[in-house]
Amino acid sequence: xxxxxxxxIVGTGAAGLYAALNFPESVNxxxxxxxxxxxxxxxxAQGGVACVLDTVHDSxxxxxxxxxxxxxxxxxxxxxxxxxxxxxSDVLKIKDLxxxxxxxxxxxxxxxxxxxxxxxxxxxxxxxxGKAIVDGLIAKVTQxxxxxxxxxxxxxxxxxxxxxxxxxxxxxxEKLHYGCNYCLLATGxxxxxxxxxxxxxxxxxxxxxxxxxxxxxxxxxxRIQFHPTAFAADHGRERFLISEAVxxxxxxxxxxxxxxxxxxxxxxxxxxxxxxxx
Length: 278
Ligand SMILES: Cc1cc2nc3c(=O)[nH]c(=O)nc-3n(C[C@H](O)[C@H](O)[C@H](O)COP(=O)(O)OP(=O)(O)OC[C@H]3O[C@@H](n4cnc5c(N)ncnc54)[C@H](O)[C@@H]3O)c2cc1C
Prior knowledge:
By secondary structure, the protein is of the alpha/beta class. Among the domains are: 1-46 and 128-224, FAD/NAD(P)-binding domain (3-Layer(bba) Sandwich); 230-277, Succinate dehydrogenase/fumarate reductase flavoprotein, catalytic domain (Flavocytochrome C3, Chain A, domain 1), CATH 3.90.700.10. The protein has 8 helices and 11 strands. The strands form 3 sheets. The protein has a 6-stranded mixed sheet. It has a 3-stranded antiparallel sheet with strand order 3-5-4, with no helix packed on it. Strands 10-11 form a two-stranded antiparallel ribbon. A hairpin with a 2-residue loop joins strand 7 and strand 8 (164-171). The structure holds flavin-adenine dinucleotide (FAD). The site of flavin-adenine dinucleotide has 33 residues, from helix 1, helix 2 and strand 7.
């Protein structure tokens, strides 16, 4: 074994970076990314983060209800409650850590509307919120003395051993082996298993596979979210996402005859939840 850490975090998207920042500095952490630190779905997120910061015009109850409606009431209620009630303090925390959100003249955060939300509650940085979050968190994480960052390093095996895990990594053609007491899988989604996707090249579900091989039960694998709008380029060029916030700000969907059609299927029209619009 090359070295032992208290915690190994696999993934440097918003989840992995933010987790690293929340451990006490006495905890020795290895943070691993299979490509460059910035290459993740987190960096691609455009529209922003949904959170209730204004309890006069909005409420946790409304945000919970909107989330349950969008999830067709199949959501795990305790997870939705946690997301809605803890999210705002996390957003304020990452703002304090230096993430640059768009602000109104009075210093409050600008909020826009997105499909499925009954209130303007999406805080953002222009149309590149994810990049602003990742850049801000990377700047902080790389200053921490207790965090060792290992990029362009593919975790290819995780084995359970006494008192922890044995992590095998391929980096520049070399095999590295690290031990840890705890391993946190923050490896993101699986969008890249589909032919057409706006997901980053790294989104191949590695963490789900590792968890499964370590004995975790995996559920709801069929619940994949399809984003309705992407830029369809010819000649094999990567598709990129046209943010929902564009519809929130008034853009409409037209068919090949130039006619609006979304409200033929749902009274919420272009602002119905993603599964309906897709
Ligand atoms: C185009 C697009 C737009 C989006 N817009 C929004 C939005 O506006 N608002 C919103 O809330 N959400 C949005 N999302 C969703 C959001 O970006 C993701 O839910 C979120 O960023 C996931 O963060 P994550 O840290 O879990 O994973 P990711 O950001 O995908 O990070 C995964 C990390 O795991 C690493 N990794 C994976 N496998 C391995 C391995 N085997 N070895 C080593 N490292 C590995 C990767 O290198 C990467 O660092 C959008 C997603 C996309 C694709």
